[in-house]
């Protein structure tokens, strides 16, 4: 099968790229000066979590990956214009529209697992199963990188 | 119709054979398939007569069905050209067989088109003067005994692609040595959930809840009589711990008046929860003695590195309690908590402390 794409590209940048993006987002948060009242703990937590995801999406390749694009779009809803989305050359969802009816017949074991994955991975709703798994691989790599960065920060900056 | 074309003289068709590179694309195709398949030499070495009749159906189900796709059924001219050429070289019996199966070609066209393949094989086996330049093929080789209609091929391609990606995912996920596809997919899903949970936990401890979480620890430690120096967080003094508790209780009482959900959320953010007094009393008396000692060494590393663990316990709803901490919360909000006992029973975690 010479046409099989043996080179599925799931490389992610190094840790420092993620670290830089995350630290930048944290300092942006601090500038907003939310952290005075401890009553808003939950609000702080949510802001930090959102900042973590957005910085991860940016570090992982911005809008060149489907999941990061969906994440950024979701985060930018209602906000100021943070992200610019270049027009894609072709529509991604053509495969779904033509074969959605048949998807239930195709290995239902795989398909309902794919449904659960679609709920977890951002932007998964519009992807075919094979594309979804590619995105999941990249997403997992980026998530683990982000977790490592955050853990290092926590460990390094925690008071003794 | 086909018979007549078979018997036509082959002045033009012989040119087809002698210059295969310049012939039609279809011609090259099936020649390429023939020469690229491995067991061909065995067929060539066989004697002539056994080839045509015996091998027809025997090779039908052979693995070289890919030639079926290449064979241009409608355009039989190239095929016939070959036959004619070989007839020129003297292998006369071949003529009859292609004729016979030429009709068969038409009949079995809707099937897997296998009969066409033995014809070509028979003819080229004898000849072998045609050189077909090997090309890279992008067509799929059909498996043994399977249909080759485009739907199933696309289906197979898709499955292979999915399997390929799952193999790549298998290396990423820890404990990804499952052979079963279903359990492998479950592992993947759980791992994604776990990573997302880790991000959430880390964002709670990192800058976010660290101050409030450590305050809970310090107050609990202080009220329990442990050395407050053991509470290494350092961001809150022990003196303000009591104020924190009171403030928390007032805040919770205020929130409960408007909406229970927001009150619970607020508590959750602080790492606390509600529980009926009777239950809390029972737990505190039961565990106060047993858990005190292990807590002292555990409290020493309450600082940064273990704050994620704290938040973990908040989320995982462990059941360790600190009696005094609960007592304080219960005491002031007595009436309110009793009233809400039905709700709190459901979420009867406890104060999250190590």
Features:
heterodimer; A: 160 residues; mainly alpha; globular; B: 354 residues; 19 helices; disordered N terminus; disordered C terminus
Can you walk through the features of this model?
The complex is a heterodimer of chains A (160) and B (354). By secondary structure, chain A is mainly alpha-helical. In chain A, 59% of the residues lie in helices and 0% in strands. Chain A has 6 helices and no strands. Chain A has helices at 15-31, 41-59, 66-75, 94-99, 108-120, 129-157. Chain A is globular, with a radius of gyration of 18 Å. Chain A starts with 14 loop residues before the first helix and ends with a helix. The model of chain A has no long low-confidence stretch (mean pLDDT 75). Chain B is mainly α. Chain B is 67% helix and 0% strand. Chain B is built from 19 helices and no strands. Chain B has helices spanning 2-7, 11-18, 25-36, 40-45, 50-58, 66-70, 77-89, 93-107, 116-126, 150-172, 181-208, 210-224, 239-258, 260-270, 277-300, 307-316, 323-332, 334-339, 341-346. In chain B, helix 7 runs parallel beside helix 9 (116-126). The longest helix of chain B has 28 residues, at 181-208. Residues 1-24, 40-76, 86-134, 210-222, 224-240 and 293-354 of chain B have low confidence and may be disordered. At the A-B interface, helix 2, helix 5 and helix 6 of A face helix 10, helix 11, helix 12 and helix 14 of B. Chain B: InterPro entries: bHLH_dom, HLH_DNA-bd_sf, IND-like. Chain B: Residues 1-15 have a biased composition (Low complexity).
């Amino acid at each position: 099968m010479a046409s099989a794409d043996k080179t599925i590209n799931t490389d992610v940048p190094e840790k420092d790229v993620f670290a830089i993006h995350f630290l930048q987002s944290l300092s942006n948060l601090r500038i907003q000066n939310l952290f005075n009242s401890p009553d808003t703990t939950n609000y702080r937590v949510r802001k930090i979590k959102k900042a973590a995801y957005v910085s991860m999406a940016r570090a992982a390749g911005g809008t060149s990956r489907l999941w990061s694009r969906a994440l950024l779009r979701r985060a930018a809803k209602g906000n100021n214009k943070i992200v610019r989305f270049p027009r894609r050359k072709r529509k991604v969802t053509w495969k779904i529209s033509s074969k959605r009816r048949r998807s239930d017949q195709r290995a239902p074991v795989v398909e309902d697992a794919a449904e659960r994955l679609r709920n977890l991975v951002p932007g998964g709703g519009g992807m075919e199963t094979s594309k979804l798994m590619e995105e999941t691989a990249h997403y997992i790599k980026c998530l683990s990188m982000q977790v490592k960065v955050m853990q290092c920060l926590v460990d390094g900056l925690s008071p003794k | 119709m086909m018979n007549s074309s078979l018997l036509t003289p082959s002045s033009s068709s012989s040119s087809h054979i002698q210059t295969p590179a310049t012939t039609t694309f279809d011609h090259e195709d099936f020649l390429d398939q023939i020469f690229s398949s491995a067991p061909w030499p065995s067929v060539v070495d066989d004697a002539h007569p056994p080839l045509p009749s015996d091998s027809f159906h025997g090779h039908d189900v052979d693995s070289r069905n890919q030639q079926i796709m290449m064979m241009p059924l409608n355009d039989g001219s190239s095929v016939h050209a070959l036959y004619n050429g070989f007839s020129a070289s003297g292998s006369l019996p071949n003529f009859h067989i292609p004729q016979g199966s030429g009709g068969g070609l038409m009949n079995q066209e809707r099937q897997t088109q296998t009969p066409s393949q033995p014809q070509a094989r028979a003819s080229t086996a004898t000849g072998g003067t045609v050189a077909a330049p090997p090309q890279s093929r992008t067509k799929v080789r059909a498996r043994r005994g399977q249909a080759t209609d485009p739907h199933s091929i696309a289906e197979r391609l898709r499955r292979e692609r999915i399997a390929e990606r799952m193999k790549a995912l298998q290396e990423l996920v820890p404990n990804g040595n499952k052979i079963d596809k279903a359990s492998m997919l479950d592992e993947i899903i759980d791992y994604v959930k776990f990573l997302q949970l880790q991000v959430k936990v880390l964002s709670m401890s990192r800058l976010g809840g660290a101050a409030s979480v450590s305050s809970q620890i310090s107050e609990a430690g202080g009220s329990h009589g442990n050395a407050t120096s053991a509470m290494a967080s350092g961001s809150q003094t022990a003196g303000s711990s009591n104020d924190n508790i009171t403030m928390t209780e007032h805040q919770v009482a205020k929130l409960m008046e408007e909406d229970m959900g927001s009150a619970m959320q607020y508590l959750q953010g602080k790492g606390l929860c509600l529980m009926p007094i009777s239950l809390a009393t029972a737990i505190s008396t039961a565990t106060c003695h047993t858990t005190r000692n292990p807590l002292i060494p555990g409290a020493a590393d309450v600082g940064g590195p273990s704050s994620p663990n704290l938040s973990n316990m908040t989320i995982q709803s462990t059941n360790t309690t600190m009696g005094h901490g609960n007592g304080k919360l219960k005491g002031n909000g007595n009436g309110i908590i009793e009233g809400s006992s039905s709700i709190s029973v459901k979420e009867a975690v406890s104060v999250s402390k190590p």
